[in-house]
Amino acid sequence: CVAFVIRHPEPIKGVPFHETRLYFDRETRLPIHVERYDWPRRSGDKPPLVEEYSYRNVKLNAGLKNIDFDPRNPRYEFPR
């Protein structure tokens, strides 16, 4: 995989994380793992991991239709 690290050395208004690590599959170029770290509590502390997601067995061209992404799709039984 290929990894990218985005790190903000100082807190910035509107930026919720100190560091984000993104991992991409070399072949598909799709994201396969994400780690997000909060701001360290004190200088010298390691930033705490607050979010972590992994994507496995991703199926491309799964035959989805526009209705599959429509919140009005009656199969979802969302309240009106």
Biggest sheet statistics = 4 strands, antiparallel
Strand order of the largest sheet: 1-2-3-4
Overall helicity:
under 10%
Class derived from helix and strand content? mainly beta
Distance between the ends:
43 Å
What is the approximate shape?
A: flat
Number of helices: 0
Oligomer: single chain
Beta-strand segment tally: 4
What descriptors fit this protein?
80 residues; mainly beta
How would you characterize the overall build of this protein?
- This protein is mostly beta strands and 80 residues long.
- The chain has one domain (2-76).
- The protein contains no helices and four strands.
- The protein has a four-stranded antiparallel sheet, with no helix packed on it.
- A hairpin with a 6-residue loop joins strand 2 and strand 3.
- It is flat, with a radius of gyration of 18 Å.
- The model has no long low-confidence stretch (mean pLDDT 94).
Outline the fold blueprint.
Elements: E1 2-7, E2 19-24, E3 31-37, E4 49-54
What can be said about this structure in brief?
Helices cover 0% and strands 31% of the residues. It has 80 residues and is mainly beta.
